[in-house]
Amino acid sequence: MEKKWWHGLIGYQIYPKSFQDSNGDGTGDIPGILSRLDYIEKMGISLLWICPVFQSPMVDNGYDISDYEKIDPMFGSREDLKRLVDEAKKRGITVILDLVINHTSDRHPWFQEALRDPEGKYGKYYIIRKGKNGQPPNRWRSLFGGSAWEPIGESGYYYLHLFTVGQPDLNWENAELRRELYRMINGWLELGIGGFRIDAIAHIKKNLDGPELPADGPDGLYSAMPYFRNVEGIEDWLRELKENTFQKYDCFTLAEVDDIPEERMEAYIGEDGYYSTVFDFCHCHHNLQNPEWENRGSAMLADIRRLVFERQLRMNGKGFFCNYQENHDMIRIPDRFLAKQDQNFYSLSMLPVLYFFLAGVPMLYQGQEIGMTDFPRQSIGEYLDLATHNSYRELLQKGLTEAEALDRINRTCREHSRTPMQWSGEKYAGFSTVEPWFAVPPGYRDCNVERQENREDSLLSFFRRVTALRSRAEYRDTWIYGDFEPLEQGTDSLWAFARSLKGQRLCVLANLTGQEVQTGQPCSGRVLLNNYDGTEQAGGKLLLKPWQAVVMENGKGNAKETRE
Ligand code: BGC
Ligand code: MG
Q1: Is 117 exposed, middle or buried (0-12, 13-18, 19+ CB in 10 A)?
Q2: CB atoms < 10 A from the CB of 341, how many?
Q3: Which atom belonging to ligand 1 lies closest to the Cα atom of 329?
Q4: Residue 188 main-chain phi, psi, to 5 deg
Q5: Could you tell me the pTM of the whole model?
Q6: 3-state secondary structure of 140
Q7: How far is residue 335 from each of residues 127, 463, 518, 564, measured CA to CA in Å?
Q8: CA of 129 to the centre of ligand 2 (A)
Q9: Pocket probe mutation, ligand 1, options 68, 199, 225, 389, max atoms within 8 Å of Cβ
Q10: What does the alpha-carbon distance between residue 192 and residue 189 come to, in Å, rounded to a whole number?
Q11: Atom of ligand 1 nearest to the CA of 102
């Protein structure tokens, strides 16, 4: 594979509203991010993805953009962003922005024009159709609940919104609109950003001509994924988008696309793919708190292992996934992957080892490095997200009691990951000097950066060791380009694989259980990373302590003798 500048990046995702407030208004902002650059650098990060900071009425916290050219004053100014990009660059960190081009905000001037004249120039920028007998054009359900169509006053027209009503979908069939978007994208690339995380891009093509499907819920609607995800013909636009923008700047692109057909994978993320990389979603539906997995933590992790390894083998040397465990749309991993009673330093530090040494671009989410956990609420009113409230309503409609519906939301809600970053044990967790826009979880006095900062045995210090090993000059190429080989497949208790390149063989072993587990195969070598003080061997095989995670270089020294 041809080497590219972005191949060795280690990413960190920032949800700007919740990262660091600098001006005492209770909301995170760009100068706040700037003030934490040293922290980010010290963590070994080389790629910063910042969720949307553009002008927005914040119906979906910035994923509803009303002016692509402006930074929302809540976050700062264009100059602040430029300063952040430049300062990050000095530290060897590439900044990427979130590119939301499946939809705009309903406050975007294009859409305001479209409302005034649905058949005019800007009406054609959106997906607007006549209703049928006083009903919407079809019975598609929005991804965030309710009908995907909203009437435009009394006009008889409806507009399509796959997400909230405040996020009308753009009409990509319109070449003029596409050109406008490319112009805007290139403008940001000119500013010196390193690329984009590309939002919801799998949905830009819609098939509005297919037959209606039967309703699949009491709302009389149906989930119409096959009509608006990876629809045939989308790839023409993806190529055009790349050629008119990203390619000209050799920038890094990370796309949010799930369910790419296996045979199309290389077209997406191969050497000449539409994107540098895409997120690997394969673990997203695994949640230990869901009935199918309850009390079977290691079985669930082993199931994720099966899916992850399949993908690693499929792409082996042909392209990269972005490997992440948390983001702003999911609950935190301690609560998703581990039972409460199993959450301790060893189990929490084992989790990043599963992912960081795979082929691909590893991406961390703010707060993951200190083990932030979920914040279940006493009442639905404590949640703010529209999508959360829509799912709550749907659950009630399906016949759940209020308590049952709240319990479900508490176990699955994406807002758990959006609580303010826990910097210290001070009031408001050092995030702000005033009451933050979203409540700080009660556990912040125990779990915060300040407490972990200078302790060798903290999760934060362990994460720093993980990223340092991922970037160490003598192993870097093997982590990036090395062949992937699954190990210890005979058991569900271990997550183990080797990466090898030019005679170097690096071996990653993690115990997915709270009991001691012995490897089936002999394994020895120099220990490069370990969440315990030493390793124990029995007859050439490794005896892994509860949740122990070890990285070693095979053929170099002996695991028993070379304690870290
Ligand atoms: C983002 C979400 C957002 C949605 C609509 C996504 O996939 O990650 O946070 O609500 O797109 O823009
Ligand atoms: Mg602020």
Answers
A1: exposed
A2: 7
A3: 9
A4: -70, -35
A5: 0.97
A6: strand
A7: 39, 18, 27, 30
A8: 40
A9: 199
A10: 5
A11: 12
Distance of CA 483 to the CA centre of its chain: 25
Residue-by-residue pLDDT tens, the chain, 564 positions: 899 999 999 999 999 999 999 999 999 999 999 999 999 999 999 999 999 999 999 999 999 999 999 999 999 999 999 999 999 999 999 999 999 999 999 999 999 999 999 999 999 999 999 999 999 999 999 999 999 999 999 999 999 999 999 999 999 999 999 999 999 999 999 999 999 999 999 999 999 999 999 999 999 999 999 999 999 999 999 999 999 999 999 999 999 999 999 999 999 999 999 999 999 999 999 999 999 998 798 999 999 999 999 999 999 999 999 999 999 999 999 999 999 999 999 999 999 999 999 999 999 999 999 999 999 999 999 999 999 999 999 999 999 999 999 999 999 999 999 999 999 999 999 999 999 999 999 999 999 999 999 999 999 999 999 999 999 999 999 999 999 999 999 999 999 999 999 999 999 999 999 999 999 999 989 999 999 999 999 888 999 999 999 999 998 776 444 433
**How many angstroms separate the CA atoms of 235 and 201, rounded?**
11
